[in-house]
Amino acid sequence: MQKLNIQLIVGIFVIIGIASFTYLAVNLAGVSFTQQQGYTLIARFDSISGLQAGAVVEAAGVRIGTVSAVELDPINYKAIVSLRINQEVPVQEDAIASIRTQGIIGEKFIKISPGGFEELLTDGMVISETEDAISIEELVSKYIFTAE
Amino acid sequence: MTDPYVQAHSTAISVRDLVVNYGERNILNGINLEIPAGQIMVIMGGSGVGKSTLLRCILGLKKPTAGSIHMLGTDITTASTREMYRIRKKMGVAFQGGALFSSMSVAENIQLPLREHTQLDEKTIQIMTRIKLDMVNMLPHEHLMPAELSGGMIKRTALARAIIMDPKLLFFDEPSAGLDPITSADLDALIIMLKTIMNMTIVVVTHELESALKIADHIAILGDGRVLETGTPQQIRLSQTTAVQNMLNRKPRETVVDPEAHLKLLVGNNY
Amino acid sequence: MQKTLEKIGASTISVLEDAGRTFNLLLLVIWHLLQPPYKFYPIIRQIYFIGARSLTLIIISGITIGMVLGLQFYSILERFGSVNLLGSGVALSVIRELGPVMTALMVVGRAGSSMTAELGIMRTSEQVDAMECMAISPDKFLVAPKVIAGMLSVPLLTAVFDFVALLGGYFVGVFMFNVAEGSYMNGMIDAVVWSDVRLGLIKSIFFGVLFSLICCSKGYYMHLGKAGSLGAEGVSFVTTDAVVLSSIAILFSDFLIGSLLQ
After folding, report:
1. How many beta carbons lie within 10 A of that of residue B155, not counting itself?
2. Coil vs helix vs strand at A130
3. DSSP alpha helices (H): ranges in chain C?
4. Which of A62, A95, A128, C119 has its CA 20 to 30 A from that of B165?
5. Per residue, what are the HEC states of A64-77?
6. DSSP string spanning C175-219?
7. Rounded to whole angstroms, how far apart are CA atoms C130 and C125?
8. ipTM of predicted assembly, 2 dp
9. C132 touches chain B (CB under 8 A)
10. CB B159: neighbour CB atoms within 10 A?
11. pLDDT single digits (tens) B53-64
């Protein structure tokens, strides 16, 4: 009787623990046990200044994917960023990928601005139009320079 | 070994030249002891003569500094853990303080060896438990926890746990320590009964002379880390050894005191 | 001067002996783990003592700490005008650091001390010897279930702690300071990645093994140390020792793991 009770309580405890962990892993960390449907696009930047794998890809402020990898092209010193885009979101051939910052010191993310072409990009293709990260230092110095 | 009594019986445990040192203190200094099978052997001695140390060595809880202990055909001073556990399944120990597991009831305490070492079904375990509890008169108290038991009940439960596996060897550390004369007489009777009906080799360590003379087939008296005298109770009574006679007559230790030296001992040299 | 050196030497030796015994116990537990048959009930019983019985404490402290974090982060972030980072700040500090460490420290205080005391009392009252004489290996019967239960319970408790701490932070952020719910939630979701959760998980498993080993070895090997001849007082000494030592070990290894696994 007492043995059963202990087993029951431990069972409930284990379920609560695993449920909490699942919440952390799936809802917060975005681990999915089924492979998320989506396709990968490549974008080249001169400078990504602090953009990291796992960063958000947005269009019109809505999350449409994540940055899956950041690499350096060793020949011409460009940053090659792989973007994992959700399956249902189309990206046109002339869409623009730009690196933006949330707030002044917030995290970097990639913003996709839609293009006008009808041709859509498919898995493995390159977004040709890109805009680099705007660095605050450059912005400030530019402002001071023009003010003089 | 010249003792005819021992020669008449086969030997269950033989201790040879056992030496135990704790750091620089010498506790046992060359113990030789033959424990005959199927008999009650009482190891006696005053406080601090190394009775408990000897018992711990025989139980394999302490490695001696030198010497050997042969038990059931194996030298346990060099035995591996596995061999030791094999031998231990054939022995039962009732510790001085009972050493009952405080988180388990009386019945659970007694069942533990059965549950760990056998594949018996629940019903058989219950019956065996009740038989052993009945032998020690603890049947009405099987659901009590150790903390709720009196001193005598603890000893009896410890005894029941020691004999649950029907061991060949039974060790009992100070069965009468801290008990009133009647309870301790009950335990003595119980020990004799165990020998007769279960044919066990029983080793009792005690400092109680009366109960020792009553239950023993064979007595060994320890003193100064050595065996002073061995023999049947009758032989012990007639022993000419001074230390043994002093013990029998409850004579206090004779100490010759030099007043000058004693004063020095108490207050130091520079008084 | 010589006395001081002797003292330092003696305490160094005793610390090393302690560490050696703890490591020895780890090897024994692993050894027993490799040897069937397995009995699960003793482990379940220990999970009940270490894990389930600590749940209330963990939930209360988790909510409190989450709320305190929300409060403090808000007042700091407000100065920089980055209140939208509140969610990610609370979530990251809870999942990466505070969750595992605070949970482990709580469990040490609640369950670790009782582990040491239990084993210490069993040692002084000859219960361990009695078990040995019954041919039941006390390190298999008494210690292994505790260490395994510690290893399983701490991560589960940490997950619960994390969850309720995030709830506490959410409550303070959204209801007290009117941070937009979406910004708070999205902040958390965007900031937390699998490697953060994994770091917390690794830490909590490690802490679980660490504290249960230290607490068990302090009680189980009590007779080998200085406290062995002191009986009941000795048990209180080793219990205090075990709690202090486990806490230090947890905090120090937290730093080590943090710097090794970025």
Report:
1. 30
2. strand
3. 2-33, 41-50, 55-80, 86-92, 99-107, 113-124, 127-133, 138, 144-170, 181-191, 194-220, 232-260
4. C119
5. EEEEEEEEEECCCC
6. IIS---HHHHHHHHHHH--HHHHHHHHHHHHHHHHHHHHHHHHHH
7. 9
8. 0.85
9. yes
10. 26
11. 889 899 988 888
The topology under which CATH files domain B1-90+167-181+191-240 is Rossmann fold (3.40.50)
B80 touches chain C (CB under 8 A): no
Amino acid at B127: I
Closest by alpha carbon to B38, among B58, B13, B3? B13
Half-sphere exposure of B207 (CA within 13 A, CB side): 14
Token pair listed for B83: 């061999």
Chains B and C touch (3+ CB pairs under 8 A): yes
Which phi and psi (to 5°) does residue B111 adopt? -75, -20
Strand A38-45 relative to strand B40-44, pairing: unpaired
pLDDT digits (tens, 9 = 90+) for B120-147: 899 999 999 999 898 888 888 889 999 9
Q: Write down the domain spans for chain B.
A: 1-90+167-181+191-240, 102-166
Sheet strands side by side (includes A129-131): A126-127, A38-45, A78-86, A62-73, A56-59, A108-113, A96-101, A129-131
Phi-psi domain of C107 (left: phi exceeds 0; alpha: psi -120 through 50; beta: other):
alpha
Span C206-261, pLDDT tens digits? 999 999 999 999 999 988 887 767 778 889 999 999 999 999 999 999 999 989 98
Could you tell me the maximum CA-CA distance found in chain B, to the nearest angstrom?
A: 75
Under 8 Å CB pairs connecting chains B and C tally to: 53
pLDDT surpassing 90 at residue C81: no
Is C127 touching B (CB cutoff 8 A)? yes
- The type of residue at B39 is Q
Nearest CA in chain C to A104: C82
Separation in Å, CA of C220 to nearest CA in chain B: 15
Using the Cβ of B99 and the Cβ atoms of chain C, whether some distance falls under 8 Å is answered with yes
Query: What pLDDT sits at residue A147?
Result: 60
Q: pLDDT > 90: what percent of chain A?
A: 10
pLDDT digits (tens, 9 = 90+) for B238-265: 877 777 777 777 767 667 778 888 888 8
Tokens 């033989």, residue located: B14
The token pair at B167 is 């061991």
